[in-house]
Amino acid sequence: MPAPEPPLLHADMLTTAEALIPVLRDRADEADKNRRLSDDTLADLRAAGFARLLQPAAFGGYEMGFPALVDVLSTIGRGCSATGWVLGQYCIHAYMTGFFPPEGQHEVWDDDPETFLVGVLAFPAGRATRVDGGFRLSGRWSFASGIDGAKWCIFGANLLEDGQPPKPWLFHVSLSEATQDDNWYTSGLRATGSKDVIVDDVFVPTCRTLDVERTKNADSPGLALNNAPIFRTPMFGCFGFVQGSATLGGAMAASEIFTGQMRERVATSSGARIAGFMTLHSKVAEAEAAINAAAAILKTDAARIMAIAEAGEIFDMETRLALRRNAAYAAKLSVGAVDDIVSAAGGAALFDTNPLSRTFRDAHACLAHITMNWEANAVPAGRQSLGLDSEATLL
Question: Is the pLDDT at 251 greater than 50, yes or no?
């Protein structure tokens, strides 16, 4: 049977994602306490095929593009922002794998094309040297979100060669060759299980490595196998869609939960219906406007990036910087909406039994990620606008 056409598949995936919202909300407290997603949730994500959204068609993926990713991740995030966050990691690292040499892609996917992939891309955290047939890799990386459900991990490390400055390089390694340190005790995004991961002098064949320079200008070795437009996009310019969509979904959840609570709640001091308070009306309206604006930013940029790739054009630096800047601004709007909602909720939101407490903690944990940090993404864009070097070496 031929694969469904992307528009139909997009709609079907959204229907499935929406059906999971109440299920994920019911599981969210337990996942938060266990500091990882449940096996049932991982099974649901796999059964729905969500993690294959951006995966190359050569391995049964859908190559659907970033508009579909934003829709699905934000919808899953409405159920549980940590689940949206982890799913985003599985999606984006399948996309990244499509840039690697074809032989390396086969090593990753031939035995299990539905396998979940994660990544840790803090380049100074790792070091690599060239040897015959490949590289030796060592390092310790933090924040391996979703590692509990994964088999493979993409590591970012600095390649060290005599007389040359360090070069950012990517390495695909089986997690059977890595050690995990279960140190994920945090205030927010607890359910992502974002442990540290350690690699000690592991050999990585050349076919499972990639020079970051070849991720920028539609020049990756993976294009020999995967020629869909999505693999012509600038890899590091696209990460904001992942974390931004999960953050947006969490803000949507906060709004839905809060308005549902307030419709029934009465003030303890007067017995009056809180939904009738004019100050609450303004808070809700401002939060919803911020959420709508964040969604519009992410969806507009997702459509724009695919249009450029489909036209076969190379992305200029201004566009790459704008993509990262806009995603961070969308996250800033989303988290601001959560702050407005939680402040309006009063003391009730302080209790762990109130899901608004978790949405607040998760929202601020989302904002701590480098792709969502406003200053880290605004400054390079601002420098570019002012005629200075953006100093965004990975873009």
Answer: yes
Tell me the two tokens of residue 202: 């592991």
Structure tokens at 131: 């040897």
97-120 b/e with 16+ CB inside 10 Å = b? bbbbbbebbebbbeeeeebbbbbb
CB 288 within 8 A of CB 341: no
- The two structure tokens encoding residue 27: 């599981």
Dist CA 388 CA 393 (whole Å) = 14
What does R_g of the chain's alpha carbons equal in angstroms?
Answer: 21
Strand 152-159 and strand 117-120: the pairing is: parallel
Which helix (H) or strand (E) segment is 375 a member of?
Answer: helix 374-385
CA 131/CA 111 separation, integer angstroms: 27
CATH for the 6-112 domain, from 1.10.540.10, 3.40.630.30, 3.40.630.10, 3.30.420.270: 1.10.540.10
Q: What secondary structure letter does DSSP report for 217?
A: S
pLDDT at residue 260, as a whole number? 84
167-174/209-211 β-pairing: antiparallel
Domain range annotation of the chain: 6-112, 117-215, 235-385
What is the pLDDT, as a whole number, of residue 278? Answer: 55
pTM of the model: 0.94
What is the CATH architecture assignment of 117-215?
A: Beta Barrel (2.40)
Return the closest-CA partner of residue 245 out of 289, 285, 307, 291.
Answer: 291
- Residue 155 parent element (H or E): strand 152-159
Which string of DSSP letters, residue by residue, matches 312-356? TPPPPHHHHHHHHHHHHHHHHHHHHHHHHHHHHHGGGGGSTTSHH
Q: What is the pLDDT of residues 144-157, one digit of tens each?
A: 999 999 999 999 99
> pLDDT class for 265, splitting at 50, 70, 90?
low
